[in-house]
Amino acid sequence: MSVLSTEDEGKFLMDVRGEQIGIVTEVDPIEQVAYVDPEPTLTNAWIQSLGRGGAGDDDLEIPSDNIETITDSEVRVDADLSSDA
To answer: pTM for the full model?
Structure first.
């Protein structure tokens, strides 16, 4: 399990195969949940990378229990979430 922080907002969510799933829009550091936009627009991605966005109604909730690693640019889950699995 990795520990999520608000500094993870704007990072790409990747699955174990290295497939990009979306972008982290918001992190709840108390509940340890990352909210992920699975289809961000270019403008949305840019805003999120600056840490200025927020979670939307259609964002996915990813609990920290499902997160394998966190790097400077990505959050990687421990599952294969790609559509061609």
So the answer is: 0.76
